[in-house]
Amino acid sequence: MPPVELHVGIVGAGLGGLAAAIALKRGGAKVTILEAATELGEIGAGIQIFPNVSRYLLRWGVDEIIGDNLVEVDEVRTWGLNGEVVTRVDSKRVKRICGFPHYIARRDHFHAGLTESARRHGVDIIVGARVNSLEYSPDSVTVTTTKAGSYSFNLLVGADGIRSFVRQQLFPEVTPLAPSKVAAYRGVLTREEILTKTPEAKSVLTNTMDMWTGPNGYIMTYPLSGGKELNVVTSFCKDYYVEKMEEVDIDEFRAYYKDYSPAIQSIIKLVNYTQRWPLLVMPPMETWSNEHKNVVLLGDACHCMQNHTGQGAGTAQEDGVFLGRVVSEVVRGVITIPEAVGLYEKKRMPRAWTKQQISLVSGELNMCSDPENLAKRDQASSPEAVLPEDGSRFPGLLPNYRSWQVFDSPDSVPGIFYYDAEGDADNAVCEYLQERDRENGEVDSLTMVSKSLSRKWWSAVDYNGID
């Protein structure tokens, strides 16, 4: 079948929207991003880029654009309240067994890298284009913006975040909830400031990521900007459900961590947080799309999650990569837009809900307050816990044990770290075509090859897309 001309609109130029734009453009679609802000940028501090996402930075050349501002730590450590390390994860081993690195970056550096990559791919990014109306039919989607006029698309992607305008038009009754009483506090300190004001905190300024866990809260630190800065993000369980951003008293905040080790307390004394961030979660939705399946949601617009696994933005980027891959088969004439969106929902919705659940449990593990469970948790990652009862060791081998720490360990969450959204999307299309052909009798009587699958692979002969 001849290639199909397809114009995809994306509402929102955040990390998920930019990843979707790059993937869709690589799949052969024309892509336009409509961004409400008048200048592109990203708020927040540091961000985790685990192997399920870093693979796309390498494929798309984003790692080269960001350059030295990407950080690879040597080790990720979890500290107990007694000042002892209770889990260790070797980042070099993670890279070896996953095939891709665990990166850390400032959100604005990461965003700038994706933006530049999107532009190099040929994505049209329009700023100052806040969408204020949405209309659709089976054949097209039209949006009107406040200042930038109207646009019509074959497919519209709502990647406009937790307060999504697109979601409100499709599902006005759906709102994110606060399922726990945990709130977050975040900011960045410079290395120079730390060394000047609190030289006793020098031990924290290593090329490691560290998490100090304690009852009802935790502190996480890691280097940014090539080691020139230190990201400090903390969580604490309040006595009420935090549902919106609030002002916080700095003395109250510092008191949350009064029992932590002196080194990390000296860091906490330097931060001057003034805001408490809610950690909202979107309840599972029955669908992410309209009835025609030509308007679809992505990222926080449909599955915002708590931050305890560092997978919120990563999951949005997986969404974008998966969607780009299945839509590439629409461009090739293999499937239709509704079929592509249906596959996207079928595969991505349960995966996102699983990650939402993992994040909630990860928070419980790190903020464990029950003494008995706390002792079991810390013992669970002890190498001695897996040795034979007689205490013997296998010659030449180190003990192989799993970390209870979920967010940083491929041994605990291989389904996250090893995941490739492009491969998953391609396999989803193949499974769909096989099943459809079996039902319709479209299978070669001699070879038993699905005729649609054969056409899918033959279509690559005449296809001149970026892939």
Question: How is this structure best described in words?
Answer:
This protein has 467 residues and is α/β, with parallel strands linked by helices. Among the domains are: 7-67 and 105-177 and 282-362, FAD/NAD(P)-binding domain (3-Layer(bba) Sandwich); 423-458. 37% of the residues lie in helices and 20% in strands. It is built from 16 helices and 18 strands. The protein has helices spanning 15-26, 51-60, 62-66, 91-98, 107-121, 165-170, 191-197, 250-255, 262-268, 300-303, 312-331, 337-366, 371-380, 414-417, 421-440, 451-458, and strands spanning 7-11, 30-34, 46-49, 75-79, 85-90, 103-106, 124-126, 131-136, 141-145, 150-153, 155-158, 182-190, 208-214, 217-224, 229-237, 246-247, 275-278, 295-297. It has an eight-stranded mixed beta sheet. Strands 7-2-1-11-18 form a five-stranded parallel beta sheet. Strand 14 and strand 15 (229-237) form a beta hairpin. The longest helix has 30 residues, at 337-366. The radius of gyration is 24 Å and the shape is globular. The relative contact order is 0.16.
Question: What are its keywords?
Answer:
single chain, alpha/beta, FAD/NAD(P)-binding domain, eight-stranded mixed β-sheet, five-stranded parallel β-sheet, 16 helices, globular
**Fraction of residues in H or I helices:** 25-40%
Question: What structural class do helix, strand and pairing data support?
Answer: alpha/beta
- For the largest sheet, list the strands in their spatial order: 5-4-13-14-15-12-17-16
CATH architecture of the domain at 7-67 and 105-177 and 282-362: 3-Layer(bba) Sandwich
Strand content: 15-25%
What is the molecular shape?
globular
Cα(first) to Cα(last) distance is 18 Å
